[in-house]
Amino acid sequence: MSVRELVVLxxxxxxxxxxRNHNGYLLRWDGEGILFDPGEGxxxxxxxxxxxxxxxxxxCVTHFHGDHSLGLAGVIQRINLDRVPHEISAxxxxxxxxxxxxxxxxxxxxxxxxxxxxxxxxxxxxxATKSYTLxxxxxxxxxxxxxxxxxxxxGRRMLPERLAAHGVGGPDVGRIQREGTLGDVTLDDVSEVxxxxxxxxxxxxxxCDGVYALAEGCDLLVIxxxxxxxxxxxxxxxxxxxxxxxxxxxxxxxxxHLVLTHFSQRYSDPEEFERQARAAGFKGELTVAHDxxxxxxxxxx
Length: 301
What we know:
Elements: E1 4-10, E2 24-29, E3 32-36, H1 42-49, E4 58-60, H2 66-69, H3 72-81, E5 88-91, H4 97-104, E6 115-117, E7 124-128, E8 133-138, E9 146-151, E10 155-158, H5 160-165, H6 171-179, E11 181-182, E12 185-186, H7 187-190, E13 191-194, E14 198-202, H8 209-215, E15 220-224, H9 232-238, H10 243-253, E16 257-261, H11 271-279, E17 285-288, E18 294-296
Parallel strand pairs: 3-4, 4-5, 5-6, 14-15, 15-16, 16-17
Antiparallel strand pairs: 1-2, 1-18, 2-3, 7-8, 8-9, 9-14, 10-13, 11-12
Helix pairs in contact: 3-4, 8-10, 10-11
């Protein structure tokens, strides 16, 4: 049975706290695992969350600030130590190639894994599989930063009442799904489009076109909310979002489940992020993330 869920490994921003590790997020999507922004301590958080190195198939880094990338060295060495048998792809801003190289070869170890470097230098599609298309969009931060979006291909939902009306049943249901027609009956006559699921990961950024493009129509949006609304000037100056801004994006983009994360250490009450997000008018499902949380991707509509 397929599993689609977000495993939250860390939720702090620049400075970790006693209760929040640096960033780290694993998306389980059917049989694949996509690791986003492995900050310092990610390898240990994976252990605590029950995530194995064999679960990883892609690593996506939004940008090369330490809280989003210093864990790369440990994760890369661990997948080699464990001799992960499949290829792993790494996506990151091409402008940060020198940082990726330093982290990949931070210390001596034996390379045993096919780690494919696939840097990002423009908006567009990074990979296409049967299960999803991985896209990237440029964000607005003091260093080059990209957000990531997964889009599942649309499918078809068979409609029993239409099948019955056209006399289609038994093995013929599978046949019309495969071939598109059955005599004079077309697939459109007995089914409707089933919209594919959408997931987006948006880290350090000011409000910009890329944020809205990534969030559009998402079933699950993971987005930074480093600051509370009263500190919006700090957010703009440092290239971040507030809780209210993140929620406004989600509201306008039609997001179903909003996950707020990447919190500044200056705040002690996580519930205030939820209050400000609700005050901004977001009415969907809302989660203020904490370390080791698991969030399922909402079921299809």
